[in-house]
Amino acid sequence: MKKGFIFDLDGVITDTAKYHFIAWRDLGAEIGVAVDLKFNEQLKGISRMDSLDRILAHGGKENDFTMDQKEALAAKKNTHYVELLQSLTPQDLLPGVKEFLDAANAKQIPCAIASASKNAPFILEKLGVKDQFAGIVDPATLHKGKPDPEIFVKAAELLNIKPEEAVGFEDAQAGIDGIKACGMYAVGVLSGEPLHGADLTCHELTELNIDELLQK
Ligand code: B16
Ligand code: MG
């Protein structure tokens, strides 16, 4: 019997990847690196600085910037990204998310967020669901990003449960790998690319039966 649900944010609760893409594409244009939608797939679930490193490597510019310059580039991208987030409303929740959270809350099954995004609390506030989460892992406290399981282990700790007592939801391969690496049950939310190693996959949360998931 499972005792808690742990959610990734971007691609599971809402689709912020399109805003990350616009902000990285525009920053890339400024420094002469083309960021297209296909390459953007590789940035899903990856932290801000790791995303910048991947973009620089993609453009053969990995040695062109000092750490201070990279911090400034990442901050510039984030300022643009946060501007784009201002338009978020509860309408931007992905299908079935509100209903799933309401059902979990009604059953007193606690939910947590395990997102690489430092903007997660602000995004959840804009979406009107922040109060439905008992915990949000602070990614600034992590030593390693996904696919390391650390973020999922911390999320389970926030809920006072063991990783194997939780169900984790992810849209990125790095996230599925992290969930499985700590013995958690993994639900993969598909958006095009296949997800390897997930215990169950769906295209949206409307397809899921919460009582069946709790029995896993
Ligand atoms: P921020 P997730 C991830 O969210 C995004 O998928 C990834 O593209 C982004 O770089 C990362 O958050 C960090 O976000 O710049 O807001 O701190 O999928 O882990 O919810
Ligand atoms: Mg994601």
From TrEMBL:
Superkingdom of origin: Bacteria
A Pfam family recorded for this sequence: Hydrolase
EC number: 5.4.2.6
SUPFAM superfamilies from the UniProt entry: HAD-like
Molecular-function GO terms, alphabetical: beta-phosphoglucomutase activity
InterPro entries reported for this sequence: B-phosphoglucomutase_hydrolase, Beta-PGM, HAD-like_sf, HAD-like_SPP, HAD-SF_hydro_IA, HAD_sf, PGP-like_dom2
Enzyme class: isomerase
Keywords tagged on the record: Isomerase
Presence of the UniProt keyword Isomerase in the record: yes
Assigned protein family: Belongs to the HAD-like hydrolase superfamily. CbbY/CbbZ/Gph/YieH family.
PANTHER family: FRUCTOSE-1-PHOSPHATE PHOSPHATASE, GLYCEROL-1-PHOSPHATE PHOSPHOHYDROLASE 1-RELATED
Name the record gives this protein: Beta-phosphoglucomutase
Species of the source: Candidatus Enterococcus myersii
